[in-house]
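Bit of a strange request maybe. I'm writing a small parser for structure token strings and I need a real example to test against, not something I typed by hand. Could someone generate the tokens for this chain?
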Amino acid sequence: MGKRYHQIIALILAVIFVTACTSATQATAPSTVIPPTPALTVSAPTNLPATITPTIIPPMSTALSATATNSPPATMPAAEKTEGDTNQNNSNVMETNHMNIQVGDHIITATLVDNTSAAALKEALAEGSITINMRDYESMEKVGSLGMELPRNDEQITTEAGDIILYQGSAFVIYYAPNSWNFTRLGKIDGVSAAELKTILGDGNVTITLSLTQA
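Reply from user aminoacidic:
Good idea to test on real output. This should exercise your parser:
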């Protein structure tokens, strides 16, 4: 009886010891349970435009071509060049004392005198040629209006064939026969005899064109 009692006591102590150890192990062992990963909710943005239009940048060659097309040209404008050429031509003709007279198919030359009347005529001709419709007067001259007034340098003159005369400041006269009056001398036709000049001018009305020769 005593031996069995001791066995029961030993069994009870063993159970208590095992229970105590188990409780201690459960209290100190780390938890191996991984908490569940929360679900992520993704919301679609609501402020994006319905359509995105891309920005197109032209290639370098296209941009350069457009710039060159709109650039003003590097050459000088035409009106300025023409004016410069005209000024140069005017300078050249103003240095000459010779004038061309075209009568039909004939072109004759004349030497202008040195006075203010001839200088004003040269200045007018430097701007362009002058055409004059002339009529025959008294079988000694052809006379027509210049269409302008020139300074007068009148003196008593007995004309010869080929003399070019200004009459009353506005009439242009070519003499092919002698006459005496108070005139302004403009010049004289070169190298043409009285008979040749009479043939060139003809018997009736005639149209002539005056121009300056290049110096």
